[in-house]
Specification:
By secondary structure, this protein is an alpha+beta fold. The protein contains 13 helices and 9 strands. It holds the Pfam family HMG_box_2.
């Protein structure tokens, strides 16, 4: 879509074909659509939904067949449009996506080729975020308390709000954009500015102070019944257990085998929808018959037997390792051990005794 500032200056280009011609010829439709966006100076790309390109010709056909975008939105006929695309049941935001791409790619094209309009651009009356396209005379009923110095402007009028609450009603359509900005934060709230369409509101958002329940730091300082401050007991984090790489791989269930098989298939078919794989696989598993599940159940039983067999072998290996006595510690550095037999030890002991008796005899003679 062209920028908002340029919409008032640009005008719609003349159509090069009739509405009936573009409906009957998808190639002519795509050629005129590309040419239209080129003349408008807007970016054109075919969107991709669920790994497939969106059929813009079918989307234009279904919407114009029901009277155009505004009529489809006003009469809530998006569900009828969705049925023509055969989206999978897991696609929950199909109406939002189709509406978004129709507004950005086909809205102005519809004005020229379906309604045969000329002149300045007409912005869409329905925006993408709006959930309900119906128009109501009073869409906002805001209650806000504002201190002195804050003003609420509606159009060209400015009014000074008192401290008491004042109820404001703003007329307009539901689809007008709403933008909120936090100006300042204080202890118990925020000063905010909200723009609803052309109306600019300023107010205060309060959150009550919870003075009844003390904070964690205050609870730690409160005295207990005995007069001593209470202590906060915290659990110690347990160290991570070491995993033996030789431990057998745990067995898988029948659903695990089914999940692995379907996940590899879905990853090839829908690479952009990995977040939906678990839900899609679960629904497929629930739809299987007993005969279809029997294959995966057999795989689960065989894998369980494999795990029991490997675990038994693993426990036997552990028993053999524990039965082997530990090796003696290596000698310390710098100490040399000499191999001395028992006979040499006895000789050394007897020689030391003879030396002692000789020394005693000499002392007695003296």
């Amino acid at each position: 879509m062209p920028p908002e500032g340029a919409q008032g200056m640009m005008e719609y280009p003349a159509p090069v074909a009739t509405h009936e011609e573009v409906l009957g010829n998808p190639e002519l439709f795509m050629d005129t659509l590309r040419r239209f966006h080129s003349l408008m100076g807007t970016r054109f790309m075919i969107p991709v939904i669920g790994g497939k390109e969106l059929d813009l010709h079918l989307l234009y056909l279904e919407v114009t067949k029901r009277g155009g975008l505004e009529k489809v939105v006003g009469e809530r006929k998006w569900k009828e449009v969705i049925t023509a695309f055969n989206f999978p049941p897991t696609t929950t935001s199909a109406s939002f996506v189709l509406r978004k791409y129709y507004i950005s790619l086909l809205h102005h094209y519809e004005k020229v080729y379906y309604f045969r309009l000329r002149g300045p651009l007409i912005p869409p009356a329905v925006t993408v975020p709006a959930k309900s396209p119906t128009c109501k005379p009073a869409i906002a009923d805001l209650s806000m308390s504002t201190p002195d110095g804050l003003q609420t402007r509606g159009g060209d009028e400015q009014a000074q709000l008192p401290k008491k609450r004042k109820r404001l009603q703003i007329g307009g359509e539901v689809n007008c954009p709403v933008v909120g900005v936090i100006d300042t934060k204080f202890d118990h709230g925020y000063l905010v500015t909200v723009k609803i369409g052309e109306n600019l509101l300023r107010g205060v958002l309060f959150h009550p102070a919870d003075s009844a329940s003390p904070s964690a730091s205050e609870r730690a300082q409160l005295p207990a019944s005995g007069g001593s401050p209470t202590r906060i007991h915290r659990r110690r984090k347990r160290g991570r257990r070491r995993w033996d790489p030789a431990h057998p791989k745990p067995n898988r269930s029948a659903y695990n085998f089914f999940f692995a098989e379907k996940h590899s298939m879905l990853k090839v078919l829908y690479p952009q929808r990995e977040r939906e794989f678990s839900k899609m696989i679960g629904e497929s598993w629930n739809k299987l018959t007993e005969e279809e599940r029997l294959t995966y159940l057999d795989c689960g039983v065989k894998d369980k037997e494999r795990y029991k067999r490997e675990m038994q072998e693993y426990r036997e290996r552990l028993k053999l390792v524990q039965a082997v006595p530990p090796l003696p510690p290596p000698p310390a550095a710098g100490i040399q051990q000499s191999a001395v037999g028992p006979g040499e030890v006895r000789k050394a002991a007897s020689s030391s005794l003879q030396m002692d008796t000789k020394s005693e005899s000499t002392t007695s003679d003296i």
